Amino acid sequence: MKQAIEEGYILDVLRDYMTIQQAFEIAKKTQENPDLIEQSAKRALFRYYKEHELTIAQKVEMIMDNFLNNGRLKINGHGKAMVVCDSRENAVRFYFAIKEYIKNHKRECEGTDALVAFSGMVKLDGDDTEYVEVKMNKDRDGKPIASDRKLRAAFHGDDFNILVVANKYQTGYDEPYLHSMYVDKKLKGVNAVQTLSRLNRVCRDKQDTFVLDFENTAESIKKSFEPFYTETTLESDMDINRVYDLRSKVNALSLFTSTDVDEFVKINDSTKRKEKQDSSAVGKIASILKPVVDRYLELDEEHRYLARDTMMKFTRCYSFVTQLVRIADKDLFKDYLFVSHLVHLLPTTGGSKIKLDDKISLEYAKLKETFHGAIELEEGGGGFKPAKGAEPRAKIKKMNTLQRIIEKINEQFGADIGSADSSAIASVTKMLLDDPVVKARLKEYAKTNDINMFIKSIFPTEFQRVLVECFMQNDEAFNRLLNDANFQRIVMNIMAKELYKTLVITEDKPDSEE
Predict the structure, then answer these.
(1) DSSP conformation letters of 442-478
(2) Domain 2-29+54-231 sits in which CATH superfamily?
(3) Among 422, 398, 441, 434, CA closest to 491
(4) 305 with 316: CB under 8 angstroms?
(5) Which uninterrupted H or E stretch holds 210?
(6) Secondary structure class of 171 (helix, strand, coil)
(7) Angle at alpha carbon of residue 104, lines to 438 and 182, rounded to 5°
(8) Distance CA 458, CA 460 (A)
(9) Distance between CA atoms of residues 276 and 286, nearest Å
(10) Residue 166 near residue 88 (C-beta atoms within 8 A)
(11) If we measure between CA atoms, which residue out of 196, 203, 297, 301 comes closest to residue 255?
């Protein structure tokens, strides 16, 4: 890698790297207190945070602000970006959030549009819609971009410059105009190197790259890249027979037959030749794989784990070995194609995922830069000293509603807001709470609706009414609140959230105690 960078064959993708610390707080909103498996519950809580629309909206705002003001201006205005998600479901969520951002910021986003790449079909919780890549990606004439080749061509052209992915295109994808990458997925080892190396292609006017990483630390990325920096060796003998041993173990599971494999490969090859997704072909593939999945689900939990683990080891081993040597075995390759497709359809455990959405709420979420600069790789290894370290998270102090609102806005903007802004926020809060009719109405709304309904549908009406009054006062203190749409939206959301909590907590107290 070092030699290739020095001789100009590839770019150094670690020269401009930014890591972001995610901080959030989740509250229980039910009297229920069920016994849960700790690790499963922790994963469910983090998944709730990662999939929450406010979390994704916050990340998309940071992504778009960076790309619009930096990445897209690179390579003589041809710079493109890739958003790397940790699941197909989140790829769909990020795609829709980016499209919504573009819709709401038409002037700033002129000439910017997004595509999404993922395999198969995706359903989101609480939504019966079946999302498939071909139906989501449409060209300027509204026609579906119906093949992998056409999607690559569309992204290379001038109409699209953001590509949202989940696994797909993280390896073996060559787009020289790709300048910026936004990572929302844990990356480790060779997977980290392969994913980030999508940026390293050289072309005319391309001088640098940029990575903004929500999930990984500079130190972990350094550890992943260093083994490949100067020299890479295989530290043990490579036994090709290991692939065949694992294939035998997969066959011993008796989940599918060679006929299933042959039919799957035949349909898959036919679909590739047509260069478009054929709904009838998808149905045929599903009819082959569904009975296999059903047989897998009939196993007890221990054997399900063993079966899935064996199949994953087989696909990983085959993928690794065939990067180093050529195996001219068509039947082995067909088994690999079938099993690699199948394992993505198998649940990780016999039971369904723990669902906590109706028992918890996202109380606090913040993104904070922890490192920005070059990740220096060393030939001989050694300690890593980042230029900046993560600051310790401050203890949450008890404060009244106005103080909490201003504190949250400070956190959002990363600096103290001015005295004029504080005065304006105090005035708006006073207008809302000093009017007994308005306060009673807000309290009733808070009492009878959940926080999301209050923030999105109820509070904005009252907030906009107060802003009209502010405008009529013609006071310069309200300038930023009236004229800065981004600041106004953030103030409104934070104020709604804090007032909701205050009104719910104090709903049974007499006014003198509030």
Answers:
(1) HHHHHHHS-HHHIIIIIHHHHHHHHHHHHHHHT-GGG
(2) P-loop containing nucleotide triphosphate hydrolases (3.40.50.300)
(3) 422
(4) no
(5) strand 210-213
(6) coil
(7) 115
(8) 6
(9) 17
(10) yes
(11) 297
Note the pLDDT of residue 205.
92
- Cβ-contact 292, 342 below 8 angstroms: yes
Alpha-carbon distance of 433 to 505, in angstroms, equals 15
CA dihedral 389, 391, 393, 399 (to 10 degrees): -160
Q: Say if residue 132 is exposed, middle or buried (CB neighbours under 10 Å; 0-12, 13-18, 19+).
A: middle
The SS3 assignment for 84 reads: strand
**DSSP labels for 104-147?**
HTTTTTTT--EEEE-SSEE--TT----EEHHHH-B-TTS-B--S
- Report how far residue 113's alpha carbon sits from residue 93's, in angstroms, rounded to the nearest whole number: 15
Q: Which residue has the tokens 């079909």?
A: 121
Q: How many angstroms separate the CA atoms of 412 and 262, rounded?
A: 55
Q: Which two tokens stand for residue 336?
A: 């690999």
* Whole-number Å distance between alpha carbons of 96 and 186: 22
H helices of 126-257, where? 133-136, 148-156, 189-196, 218-225, 241-252
The contacts of residue 301 (CB under 8 Å, 6+ apart) are 349, 350
Ranges of each domain in the chain: 2-29+54-231, 241-345, 401-513
**CB hemisphere CA count around 61 (13 angstroms):** 15
Rounded to a whole number of angstroms, the distance between the first and last alpha carbons of the chain is 64
Distance of CA 56 to the CA centre of its chain: 7
Nearest to 101 by CA among 115, 87, 114: 114
- DSSP class of 513: G
Q: Is pTM beyond 0.70 here?
A: no
- Spatial distance between the Cα atoms of 330 and 337, rounded to a whole number of angstroms: 11
How far apart are the C-alpha atoms of 145 and 136, rounded to whole Å? Answer: 9
In tens digits, the chain (514 residues) has pLDDT values of 888 888 888 999 999 999 988 765 655 545 555 545 455 566 666 677 787 888 898 899 999 999 999 999 999 999 999 999 999 999 999 999 999 999 999 999 999 999 999 988 888 877 788 999 989 999 988 999 988 889 999 999 999 999 999 988 887 788 999 999 999 999 988 889 999 999 999 999 999 999 999 999 999 999 999 888 876 555 555 577 888 999 999 999 999 999 999 998 888 776 555 544 455 666 677 788 888 988 998 888 888 888 988 998 898 888 878 766 778 888 999 999 999 888 877 875 544 455 545 554 555 566 777 788 888 887 654 444 443 333 333 333 334 566 666 666 666 554 445 666 777 788 888 888 777 787 888 888 877 777 777 787 778 888 888 877 776 665 666 777 777 777 788 888 888 888 887 777 554 444 433 3
Phi, psi of 417 (to 5 degrees): -80, 155
* 249 vs 469: CA distance, rounded Å: 73
